Every structure is written in C-alpha cells, then in structure tokens.
Amino acid sequence: MIYLLEDAINGILMGSIYGLAALGLTLIFGVLKVINFAHGSLLMVGMYAAYWAVLLTGAHPYLALVIVLPLMFAFGYLLQAVVIQPIFKAEREVREPITVIIVTTGVWYILDNLGLLVFGPQYRNIQDNPLRGKMIEAGEMLISVPKLWGFCAALVTAALVWLFLQKTRMGRAVRATSLDRDAASLQGINPYRIYNIAFGLGTAVAGVAGVALVPFYNVFPTVGVLFDIKCFIIVVLGGLGSIGGALLGGMIIGVIESVGPQFMTATWTEAIVYGLFLGFLFLRPSGLFGVKYDW
Amino acid sequence: MALLEVDRLEVSYGDVQVLFDLSLRVEEGEVVSIIGGNGAGKSTLLRAISGLLRPRRGEIRFDGRPIQALPPERIVAEGLVHVPEGRRLFGLMSVEDNLRTGAYNPRAAAHEEETLERVFGLFPRLKERTAQMAMTLSGGEQQMLAIGRGLMARPRLLMLDEPSLGLAPIVIRSIFDTVRQVAAQGTTVLLVEQDVKHSLELSHRGYVLEHGRVVLEGPAAELLGNPHIRTAYLGI
C-alpha cells in the first residue's frame, strides 16, 4: 500500500513536468489555433540549452533559467516571426491554416537533425549537479528531489502564465487575439505580433520544462519525440488552451505511468493512456477544462 | 477636406466583385448613413475602410492621408474605429476586459481610465456588470458593450455596422439614442443600417447602396422623402 502511495506521489511529480511541457503547447495552440508539431523539438532545444548552461557555468540547474528563459523566448519569437508568420499572412483568410502545421512538422525535422549534427547522437546528462539522484525520505516513502523541484517549477510557471494572461495589458491582448483575431485587430492589436509573443512564451515554457528535466533525465537529439505525443494527449485530456487542464492532464498521465506497472506489465500502461485519450475524443472532445464555445 | 474620403473603390472576394466604383465622403462632425438591403456590400465597404479587406482598386483617405494599404491596427491608431457587424465581442472575457481591450492603441491607452468613466456614464448598465462575461449579456447589452469598446479607442470617426441587428424595437430606440449622444459629443459617425427610417432620422446625409454601387445620395431628409426609398425600403 505504501508503495502505491509512493508511486502515486512520484507519478504526480513527474506528471506535473509533463504538464509543464504541455503547457507551452497549449499556450501556442490557444492563440495560433494551430498544433505546433515542433513542440517536442523546442523542448529538446530547451534541454540542451539548460544542459550546456549548467555544464559550462557549474551553477545550480535552476539558476540556468536566467540564461535559458530569455534565450528560449527569443528563439520562439524569431522562429514564429521568420519561419511561420509568412505562411499565416499568405493564408490570411483561413482561421486554422493546415499549411502551418506542415511547416511546424518541417521545423521539427530540421531541429532534431540539427541537434544530431551539432551535439551528436550520444545521451548526455549532468553527473554532478546538486539535485541528481537526491531523495527525501518521508516515513517509508522515497520522494525524488529533482522531480519535486520540477513540480514546484510547473506550479509557479502555470501561475505566472495565468497572471500574465489575466492581469496584464499584453495578456489581455493575447486573450483577445485567441478569441477573435479580426476583432482584436479592430481594437488596434497587431495579431501577428501577438502570435510571436505567444510562440516565444510557449517556447520559454518549454525551456522551463527543459531545466526541470535536465537534472535527472538524459538529453539527446530525439528526446522531444518521447514528449511530443504525451503533450498532445495531455492537451486533449485537459482541454486545448487550458492552463489548469495541461497540469492536471499531465498529472493523470504521470500517475497512470507510475502506478500502472504495480498491476501489469509496464508497456500496458501505454495502452491505458491511449485508451483514455480515445475515450476523451469520443465522449468529451473539449477535454476536462476546454470550452466548447471557443472552438 | 473631408475627414473620410472613399474614391472609386473596387473590392472583390476572389473572382466575385462586390463593390464597384464606389465613392463617398464623410465630413468632420457629420452623421452619415449607408443604407441598403442584404448583400448590397455595406459590410464589405466598412471592412475595406478598416483594413480587414484589401481593395482591388481605388483610394481611401482618412484626414487626407491614404490608408488603404495600412493594416487594421494602424488604422485604429489613426482614430478610425469600426464596430463590426454581429458585435464580435470577446465572449469569454469580462465586460471590463472587453472595454479595456478597446483602448489598446497608444493614443487611447494614455486616457484609458478617463474614457472608461465616460463610457460608463453613457452605459450605466455596463458599469453594473463589469465582471460579467460578455457572452452572458443580453443582446442589447452586448451591442452597448460593442459600441462602448469602440468608444474606448477614442475614435475621431466611429463606423457602426448594423447596431440594431436582432434587437427588440425598444432596445433599438435606446441604441439609436446613444448614437445620437455620441455624435452630439463631437464624434463623427458613419452608420450602416437596414433600419432605414431610424438611421436616416438621426443622420445629416445618406448613401443608398444597391449591388455594390451608390445609387442615391443626398441629405437625409431628402432621402426620406424620395419615392424610390419610400417604396423599396420603407414600404409606404
């Protein structure tokens, strides 16, 4: 019984990091109305950025945020402004241009292969960092310290993103653009600039997820693929565009993955996750917190 | 020089031309109505003026400067504000957030609080409902919010697209009263309407659009007496 609880807790912690990764995806989708297939690759870039920042400075992994956050924001902002925006402008009349999805798929392949070219195929991890392998003993339970940090990072990031969207002038403009692009531009908002900002923000959030993962997870060029599909499932579970939904969806997946193997072969948990995903698509396609009105 | 001049405008959706050789002007301080039936091209005209559509030919000048190549957000910043057909509120945002979004352009942002008080003065109902989500308002309140959001941008010229659409007669009257008040406070108004009688009654001049062309124009009182308008639009 105690193991079950331990697994559940560690599942929630790991799941919140999945949720953090999915948060960036849901943010970008919420505003651009386009699924960003390059999101896992953005996470990969964030992980490499965190990896090198920690390795070269020898600082605490979370101090790497000082470098990773602005770097990732700028990367996402420019990626949208230079590569994706021209397609949006060419398809001005379409609300959810499919061609943009194809472009993000191209970005995914290019980034993953660039990663392979530049960093090589080997798995990298930071051996000597103050979080690696640390455990807290709570009674008979062992709680992973790096995952606990990731959990806190996920909550803080989600809260900050929520505050930005709800309480700032720019956040209001982002929400307005996500609800009605043309009406927003009639209020004096440049929707393409908002797209850049949303993409930058989503990428920066992927950077936070990268920082959270690097202390205990391997970095390699195709690491994003592992998270890509999870992120899509989480976002559908939680409701496209919902911040709380992304976190909760992530935690659900995390708990299934860590408690499931107590009762069955570990590979079966995948089947449960996909089953749940299909079930949601059939019964509640707007997800836990998605708003039907919006889509 | 007129505040707004539309000069030989042609607009198409793909291969389908909607506006033909259309010219009109609005002087500072005027209230001008554009009337016409469904599909006459009224909304297309406003969408072209506000920059949502690119005209194929012709020029649009605001305060003497050509604006037909500017994006909508730049045109709003110039003081030419479009309250679109069907209101297009941000349904999942609060009344207050909707209003404040209207003041996003830098010229209006500097006076946001002051304008907000003025809008609440004009629509006390909105002040009671600041925290309510826009989609939960009644139709009349939604129209008030749409106009209020437009006023938040501190327009020099306010373009209203069918503010009476889908509203009960008593609500329509109060909306038109508000338009009259806005005009009296010095805002130039370009009003697109199917409610020909009410809109001409509060206008100085009017244009009649049919099949994308101006077929009649003149002082509002004259148009109200015109036999063609009386039979085709007023049913008298």
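qc> Chain A has one domain: 2-223.
qc> done
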